[in-house]
Every structure is written in structure tokens, then in C-alpha cells.
Amino acid sequence: MKRYGFIFARGGSKGVPGKNIRPLGGIPLIGHAIKAGQDSGLLDRIIVSTDDEAIADTARQLGAEVPFMRPTELAQDNSPEWLAWRHAINAVDDFDIFVSLPCTAPMRIGDDVRRCIETFESDKCDMVITAREAERHPSFNMITVDTAGYATIAMPIGTDIIRRQEAPPVFDMTTVCYVTTPNFILEHDAVFQGKVKMVEIPPERAVDIDTELDFAFAEFLMERNS
After folding, report:
1. Does residue 72 belong to any structural domain of this protein?
2. Alpha carbon distance 132, 123 (integer Å)
3. pTM attached to this predicted model
């Protein structure tokens, strides 16, 4: 079994400019994804897909491979990452297991990646994703507003359940790790077109960096844990 880890890091982030090589806890953000992949002990290669030479140079210095550059048309704000996944698969030699490690989840550890790979290889599924227990529940804490401006519960659950603790648990997807096969990506167009299993991640390791506030929170956690 050949397991390849991929890190997709384009250069044009607007929410946090230059975030993929911005220092966090003393190393560039992309370095945390590379280290988690290395620490998993299960990846044969760690490959970075980027359109940015500075990101490519940083990735190589931190021990990852950059055997190709991502085309500009696959590195725009509105470029589907699924297409970048396909491009990466077609740009390398044949392998068995595809593992995506987004830069935006710097608090993940090698064991999180290992659990995802082991879950995929031991369970019958097409994809493994990660998630954390949701802080809010669509049947109790989330609302929708109709065209007249009236609010109602997003997902009414029925009269027999009156406490959130009795309701089925819900989870927030995280960007910690995705595991699948190259064939699934080439033959499908989205994660949930197949049978999907979940690996639960503790909230403190499920931080997803999209904004400056997210980055500041990650810095706080890094300092607290150091």
C-alpha cells in the first residue's frame, strides 16, 4: 500500500494574506501540516500542491516534496479544491491511499492523521473525514428566517424530545484530514457521493484558520501548550 499525503496551499489567501507561510508557534503555518504528516508514520510521501514559489521553497525546506506547480486556473478563490486534488493525482505516479492535510488545521497531531488512515483501511468506506462535536444544535440553537422576516428553528425535531441532551448529536466538519483513494476522486465529484466515515477530533485540535481571529486563537493555543 502506497500512502501519499497532499497539502494544498495556494498563494492568494485573502482572509489571512500570506497565511500558508506565516509563522505560527515559530514555524510557517504549512510546517504544522508537514510535521503532522511526518509524525503519523504512515505516509510514504508528503507532496505540496501550490502555485506560489515562496510556498514551494518553504515546503521543501521543511521536508516536503514539490514535484509540480499547480496551474493558475486551479488556484483562484473560486477554484474547486476537488479539481486540485485530481490534478495532483494525475501529476504523480500511481498510489493507493490519498490523504489531504489542509494547512488551515495547524493544531492536528500525527495521531489524528494515523487514526484517519487506520479507520479508512479497516472500515468499508469511500472516504474518511474529521469532525468535532458541534457547539450549537440546529434543532435548538439555530434558526432560519423566512421572506417575511419571521424566525423559526432550523430543523424542528418533534414534540417527544424537549432537551438538547436527548437529541441526536450533530458535528461540525473540520479540515484536519481527508482520506480516500485516487479512483474515488477521479470518478466522483464530491465527498458525500460515497460512503463516508468520521473520526472525531477534540475541539482544541480542530481549529480551522480562515480569519485573523482564527489565527490569533491558534497562536493563543500554541503559547498555552508550549
Report:
1. yes
2. 20
3. 0.90
